[in-house]
Amino acid sequence: MLTRGGTIGAMAQDLSSLRPHIALTPLDGRYRSVVAPLVDSLSEAALNRARITVEIEWLIHLTDHDVLPGAPTFTDDDKAYLRQIVADFGAEEIAELAAIEAETRHDVKAVEYFIKRRLAAAPSDSVLPRVGEIVHIFCTSEDINNLSYALIIKDAVKRTWLAAAQGLVDDIAELARATRDVPMLARTHGQPATPVTLGKELAVTAYRLTRQLRRIAAAEYLGKINGATGTYGAHAISVPEADWPAIARSFVEHLGLTFTPLTTQIEAHDWQAELFSDIARFNRIAHNFATDVWTYISLGYFRQNLAAQGSTGSSTMPHKVNPIRFENAEANLEISCALLDTLAATLVTSRLQRDLTDSTTQRNVAPAIGHSLLAIDNMTRGLAGLDVDRVPMEADLDGAWEVLGEAVQQAMRAASIAGATGMEDPYERLKELTRGRKVDASAMREFIASLNMPADVEARLAALTPATYTGYASRLVDELDADTRG
């Protein structure tokens, strides 16, 4: 017997009716523990708390600067009472605000009424019960929203995401330093190529990710508070003697944001697009890293530490420990990038002076950053469960003596330039020896001996092995520390 789409038994309970509510998305369900810190920054409740903050700080700012003729001056106790409204914003207040919004059908207007209730309940010997009309004065909803979003995104990135991302990069850099001298066969185009060290390859990733973190750490978070179409029209007609652009600038900077002097009704959100593009680029570099580590695990260069991974592996093949941390990271990075790309593309556009596409779009900042945070957690855990296995790395190197063809060819060129004879056509001669053929140590050394190179050059090449043909790879890992100092 089938119901609801023809697949569920007739007696199945409607899960949407259960209380407490069952999470619809994995971020709020299966992976809640990992992304929970973002709730304090990017949830709807956090957004409303930020709106309350902006409204209250605007109220205090106007009275502190004597902007409004006849407005009272707040005492320290008055300001403490107002700011305590933000500090006390919890479960009961969230429910109350939701009830108000159910009546107003407008989220920012609900915040205004919520604050006015608190003002009415202030001590009778305070001026606060008499200043209700100052709340939200000269503000359009976007004045409050753009500042609130800037505050919560800044908080999420700087307090949670950046710390996790930096931790991952630090772990990669630490592993790079530990494996700086571990030789490894490179594979350009998937084919054996000039050897490197494992540490140098890890250092490349750490360096790339560090550059992106610097850009993200230096991001500007912009804001405005200039009225319905960005002209301070109501401000100027109501209180013409005030320098409203200067007041707006000082307020935005008081919030720790960068002032935007020219806007339509909305702050253009260009800064958000820039930030989300930078995080997406970090994600893509991290994705590249995850796929490379997956490949190194497949090659046996990394062994997965069963205790650290805490993984069952395959449900039917007990010998397997699947690299699920890196596979999960790949998937979450792809989802994050898709959302971040959409945010970056959509938020920079608005019809004429205002449309509401940004309102819906910005509500997806949380899952965009949440999936990135989840991927970072996966990779951090995955790295912690890896052990380097030098045996297969050494075997691969010893089976690829043909990679020394590059060294021999270039040494022949240099010797020829220095005046040695018989060094003609080095590329062609090495191609004949090595292309499409496996070359062992004996064959390579026999070929080197046949070239009649200068004695010092021949000795250098004869002593060379794939494992020692790593150039400055080990030393290059030091660039991580030099880059940090710079």
**Any idea of the CATH class of the largest domain?**
Mainly Alpha
> Major β-sheet, in short?
2 strands, antiparallel
Total beta strands: 6
Number of domains: 3
Oligomer: single chain
Strand content: under 5%
CATH fold category name of the largest domain: Fumarase C, Chain A, domain 2
Report the average pLDDT across residues.
93
What gross morphology would you assign?
elongated
* Order of neighbouring strands in the sheet with most strands: 1-2
Q: From the alpha-carbon coordinates, what is the Rg to the nearest angstrom? A: 31 Å
SSE pattern: HHHHHHHEEHEHHEHEHHHHEHHHHHHH
Detail the topology: elements first, then pairings:
Blueprint: H1 32-35, H2 39-42, H3 44-64, H4 76-87, H5 91-104, H6 107-120, H7 141-178, E1 183-188, E2 191-197, H8 198-217, E3 222-223, H9 233-238, H10 244-254, E4 258-259, H11 270-299, E5 302-304, H12 306-309, H13 324-347, H14 357-362, H15 365-384, E6 386-388, H16 390-398, H17 405-417, H18 426-434, H19 441-449, H20 455-462, H21 473-476, H22 479-485
Parallel strand pairs: 3-4
Antiparallel strand pairs: 1-2, 5-6
Keywords: Lyase, Purine biosynthesis
GO molecular function, one term: (S)-2-(5-amino-1-(5-phospho-D-ribosyl)imidazole-4-carboxamido) succinate lyase (fumarate-forming) activity
Domain Fumarate lyase N-terminal: 29-329
